[in-house]
Design goal:
285 residues, alpha+beta, 9-stranded antiparallel beta sheet, 2 helices, 15% helix, signal, Toxin-antitoxin system YwqK family antitoxin
């Protein structure tokens, strides 16, 4: 009887051990970001970004600007004023801005979303959530030792209209034009101009590629995403399978330098997946 009892206990222990190892393996698989190519993406299913470079609209906005500035109403939205004072290398920096508590989801196509973090008293460009802070909306000005060195306008966290850059003597150095986060210099190609079906968006600022790059399939699904800095590809560029715009399945990820002008860096394929999202290749770290 006793040998039978110990045999039964031993069998149960083996079974529990096998189950634990299986669960551990499953946890490891699900925690592995490369185990499946299917990803949750704000870009898919997608609608094409609206590139409204409308000069007539701007003229009308200028007329309304003077009427509403005194009430802190910008683009039809009531805002609040904010001030951040700091010091850097012995120089006094002051940022004057407006912000809104409107619950707006930022455009996923735009790389830099500017928002005010009241907890850290800082303006940030990434990691925004409505629980953590407020989108900048309205005029912005940065002063260095009481001299204006930058000024512009924000629209729900994105740079909008004309932005001016000055030197320490308030002499104009450069200016750039935006439309809801898109640099006006951006190069855009279309599959079909009449329907505004975009083929690719190449962000250009000050004559160089700068910002998020997008290439689309003709059915408007995102095909390639990546980032440019100072005219060079940086970070992780991702290619997607054409799934008929139903879900996002990664096809290939290519790793570029993390920062522009990095010497002796050769881009490489980091990982690949098949059409079902199964991992078929990953470069060993």
């Amino acid at each position: 009887m006793r040998p039978l009892f110990f045999s039964l206990v031993f069998s149960l222990l083996i079974s529990f051990s096998a189950m634990a190892q299986k669960e551990k393996g499953e946890d490891k698989k699900t925690s592995d970001p490369d185990s499946v190519g299917t990803v949750n993406s704000a870009l898919l299913p997608t609608t094409m970004p609206l590139l409204l470079f409308d000069e007539e609209k701007e003229k009308e906005e200028k007329k309304e600007k003077k009427k509403k500035a005194r009430k802190n109403i910008w683009f039809g939205v009531k805002t609040r004023k904010g001030v951040i004072q700091s010091e850097f290398r012995g120089q006094d920096i002051v940022e004057l801005f407006n912000f809104t508590d409107a619950e707006i989801t930022p455009d996923p196509y735009i790389r830099d979303i500017y928002w005010f973090d009241p907890g850290e008293k800082e303006i940030k460009t990434s990691g925004y959530s409505k629980e953590e802070g407020y989108l900048l909306h309205g005029p912005y000005e940065r002063q260095l030792n009481e001299v204006v060195v930058e000024s512009g306008m924000f629209y729900y966290g994105t740079k909008h209209k004309t932005w001016m850059l000055y030197d320490a003597k308030n002499v104009l150095q450069d200016k750039d034009h935006f439309s809801e986060g898109w640099p006006r210099e951006s190069r855009i190609t279309y599959y079909e101009q009449s329907s505004q079906t975009i083929e690719q968006i190449i962000p250009v600022q000050f004559g160089l590629e700068e910002g998020n790059y997008f290439y689309f399939y003709e059915n408007r699904q995102v095909a390639v995403t990546g980032e440019y800095q100072y005219g060079e590809k940086v970070g992780l560029w991702t290619e997607y399978w054409n799934t008929g715009n139903t879900k996002a399945i990664r096809k290939r990820e290519i790793q570029y330098q993390e920062e522009a002008y990095t010497k002796n860096f050769r881009p490489y394929i980091r990982a690949e997946w098949d059409k079902d999202g199964n991992l078929i290749y990953r470069k060993d770290s």
